[in-house]
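Raw record, unedited: S-methyl-5-thioribose kinase
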Amino acid sequence: MESGENGAFHPLDEKSLVEYIKSTPVLVARLGGEAELDHLTIKEVGDGNLNFVYIVTSPKGSFVAKQALPYVRCVGDSWPMTRDRAHFEVLILKEHGRLCPEHAPEVYHFDRSMSMIGMRYLEPPHIILRKGLIAGIEYPLLAQHMSDYMAKTLFFTSLLYHSTADHKKAVAEFCGNVEMCRLTEQVVFSDPYRISNINRWTSPYLDQDAKSVREDDELKVQIAELKSMFCERAQALIHGDLHTGSVMVTTDSTQVIDPEFGFYAPMGFDIGAFLGNLVLSYFSQEGHATETNDRKAYKDWILNTIEETWSQFEKKFLSLWDLHKNGNGEAYLPDIYNNPEVLHMAQKKYMNNLFHDSLGFGAAKMIRRIVGIAHVEDFESIKDESRRAICERRALNFGKLLLKERQKFDTIGQVITAIKERSVQ
């Protein structure tokens, strides 16, 4: 449901949210009817950088209320930000939910004038994946689920499935999410490589490391190539912020949330974001090790998950391509790629390029989380700053290597070997 009946925008607090719910029948119904409105529990849980998020529960129902603010919440109203991102978030939640309903929460309500989304509450024991990784919890189905989500959402929104006419129409619709794209351009591809008053790092331990990023000419050349690709290549409808804080999990459920940065962009940006954040988690583990748990077995699980996520993604993506090779997709027309040999050659080149794109974008996401504005709890929760800095330096050095030498890696297994080698340097 999309509506605008609740009037002019105003930020909702717990009290005004109750009044809003009372005036919104679909949300009343989700809570079990009007009789339940006197028994509501509302909890503000927005620990992100941009939005208010409330969990609303009654004895007979629940939902999450998410409201986009007209500024970056973690900075304040000195950094304005379009509220229209909520509109694009809903479009992507619905489209990705249609393509992969097992791993995208259902949207119940959207009020564009209030930038307010009502969606499924992912009840306990669901937790943010990043928090589970910090706690050392293994998720045996994570690689299976995330490879499934990425294969379906990326393949079915690409020219491997779309006609060029349908693709350009879809691309045009999401060009309106320009402010979120520009924010990504700034904080991922620009700020870490220059002096910026919003950059931060674990100082003084990483002062020289941050300076080395700003003075590395080859790194700048490589990040420029990725920035151009991000801005210019409308390959598929990506999530746009697919880190481990945008995934909620239990041991048998994986749900992808918060796609407000999404638009048509390189597939590798999503794949790289997820894999890169798993690599960050890997390098953080020594900072969470104790005398009774050295985290070595858990680090092995993370590496296996990285390897399995890419391997399963590649297999599933190619299976979808084979299944739909005679469909409407116009990138590889069946009367041209008309024998198994030429199709295999085309697929091999496509996946090799996608692999290197993913490594590059993953490296960029790693670097920006260490010397840019927005850091990750994996490292930030390590209280001993000198210990934290050692973990961050190893991750940063690996990210720099991966960004500059991504073309030298032929397999995900080679990447895993390189991670291991640099975890002790």
